[in-house]
Amino acid sequence: MPTPLVVSDVAKSFTMHLRDGIRLPVVAGVSFSIQAGECAVLGGPSGAGKSSILKMLYGNYAVDEGQIIVQHDDGLIDLATASPRTVLAVRRQTIGYVSQFLRTVPRVSALDVVAEPLVERGEEREAAREKSRSLLAELNLPEKLWALPPATFSGGEQQRVNIARGFITEHPILLLDEPTASLDARNRDVVIALIAAKKAAGVALLGIFHDHDVREAVADRIIDVTAFAAGKIAA
Amino acid sequence: MTDEPLLRVSALSKFYGSRVGCENVTFDLWPGEVLAVVGESGSGKTTLLNCLSTRLLPSSGTASYRMRDGQFRELYRMSEAERRFLMRTDWGFVHQNPADGLRMTVSAGANVGERLMAVGDRHYGKIRATAVDWLSRVEIDEDRIDDEPRAFSGGMRQRLQIARNLVTGPRLVFMDEPTGGLDVSVQARLLDLLRGLVTDLGLAAIVVTHDLAVARLLSQRMMVMKDGRVVESGLTDRVLDDPRAPYTQLLVSSILQV
């Protein structure tokens, strides 16, 4: 079985044009691969570039150098150079992403926020809503909230909506940016079980988990991001 | 999904005498894709929109559109009558000021029905039923169908304009600041409505806006314009979360947080 995700020699820096063009290197020489059915965890202190790596893998941050090769649609795609249209197709079919915070849309119910990625993949709206209901129930989101837009939800409630939205599809690659940060112990266990189910289904997972217990429970391997330090240049 | 774009734009420029309207704009637009064009007043975004919708003729460059028969036609070589027909049937144009896109002295129902008659519908009952359906899709009560848009609020007028444009099932819609001048609560409702309609109908759209939040909500791709030129383009979330061009960084850093 081919490797779903191979990252080689990726580098990223920010150039702040409003601050006299100073360059802030983030990471360099990032190289790793993720196998189907494993959960790798990015390790390292805050500011080491863990989130930036995830964002590059999702096409949300531009890549300065290197390659991000993804198994997509019976072929290989280099996300570092792919066109916006290709990145959108990869997001729809191949790479799922649970962000740290939910970006809410006015007037769309939690149920539909979760169902949306399935509808985008061509699933019937009602069938997608049905899956959305069962996932929200599994994550213990009170049923009375399902029909409401998540903008006014608590942090933990929004995060569960976000997790459901990320886990509802069958993307072969799933990126997780601290999905358990504001959850209580019971819901953390639900997420651990969801991750285990994804692994069993052959999904390649890459995540950031600051919570020690969760990391212990899900990680097959830690990728130490400090090894990719770009050497911060004093501003 | 088809592998061919709906619209191909190449090196499009428009000069007003020696002044640059827009210069050397190149992009492709695919079916179902929403492209936001952002920039401040005078950046050339409205000039670009007017050239693309053939309301203005460019000074140089080409734009070809894939007709329903699958053939690409060069927009600026079509006859005036062909362009008008395209505008009435396959395209929509949503103006910032609804008064520019509506006939203010005929009823709401007639505003919607008129576009249907333009494409050859003649059956009064059917036209009225379709008009009622579209008014409800844009959340206008059926009992307002005989009122003139003059009697509508700004938000209702804008929703009516959208219904008028979408009733013929266009494949491409141009929007010029569709939420400009509306209260934020009205804006949110309109944006949600537009988002839903664009997804359900699989429309392609080019949306000109100076509001980056509107661009983020509606579009998948984005072009940032300054002084008539495209200074940055790409996935909307990439451009907003990792802006590369100095001007885009300035725009993004100027957003007020609430």
Care to give the gist of this entry?
Chain A is built from 7 helices and 9 strands.
Which helices and strands occur, and which strands form pairs?
The complex is a heterodimer of chains A (235) and B (258).
Chain A: E1 5-16, E2 22-34, E3 39-43, H1 50-57, E4 65-72, E5 75-78, H2 84-93, E6 95-98, H3 110-120, H4 125-138, H5 155-167, E7 173-177, H6 185-200, E8 204-208, H7 212-218, E9 221-224
Parallel strand pairs in A: 3-8, 3-9, 6-7, 7-8
Antiparallel strand pairs in A: 1-2, 1-4, 4-5
Chain B: E1 7-16, E2 19-29, E3 34-38, H1 45-52, E4 60-66, E5 72-74, H2 80-89, E6 91-94, H3 98-101, H4 108-118, H5 124-137, H6 154-166, E7 172-176, H7 184-201, E8 204-209, H8 212-218, E9 221-226, E10 229-235, H9 236-241, H10 246-253
Parallel strand pairs in B: 3-8, 3-9, 6-7, 7-8
Antiparallel strand pairs in B: 1-2, 1-4, 4-5, 9-10
Helix pairs in contact in B: 4-5, 4-6, 5-6, 6-7
Structural class of chain B: alpha/beta
Strand content of chain B: 15-25%
**Cross-sheet strand order for the largest sheet of chain A:** 6-7-8-3-9
Largest interface: A-B, 19 and 23 residues
Protein name (chain B): Phosphonate C-P lyase system protein PhnK
Keywords (chain B): ATP-binding, Lyase, Nucleotide-binding
Family (chain B): Belongs to the ABC transporter superfamily.
GO molecular function (chain B): ATP binding; ATP hydrolysis activity; lyase activity
Structure description:
The complex is a heterodimer of chains A (235) and B (258). With 235 residues, chain A is α/β, with parallel strands linked by helices. Helices cover 34% and strands 26% of the residues of chain A. Chain A has 7 helices and 9 strands, in the order βββαββαβαααβαβαβ. In chain A, the strands form 2 sheets. A 5-stranded parallel β-sheet of chain A has the order 6-7-8-3-9, sandwiched between helices. Chain A has a 4-stranded antiparallel β-sheet with strand order 2-1-4-5, with helices on one face. With 258 residues, chain B is α/β, with parallel strands linked by helices. Chain B has a domain at 1-83 and 206-258: Rossmann fold (3-Layer(aba) Sandwich), CATH 3.40.50. In chain B, 38% of the residues lie in helices and 25% in strands. Chain B has 10 helices and 10 strands. Chain B has helices at residues 45-52, 80-89, 98-101, 108-118, 124-137, 154-166, 184-201, 212-218, 236-241, 246-253; strands at residues 7-16, 19-29, 34-38, 60-66, 72-74, 91-94, 172-176, 204-209, 221-226, 229-235. In chain B, the strands form 2 sheets. In chain B, strands 6-7-8-3-9-10 form a 6-stranded mixed β-sheet, sandwiched between helices. A 4-stranded antiparallel β-sheet of chain B has the order 2-1-4-5, covered by helices on one side. In chain B, helix 7 (184-201) links the parallel strand 7 and strand 8 (204-209). Classes of the chains: A alpha/beta (235), B alpha/beta (258). The A-B interface holds A 14-18, 55, 59-62, 84-85, 87-88, 105-108, 119 and B 30, 33, 188-189, 191-192, 195, 199, 217, 220-221, 234-235, 237-238, 241-242, 244-246, 249-250, 253.
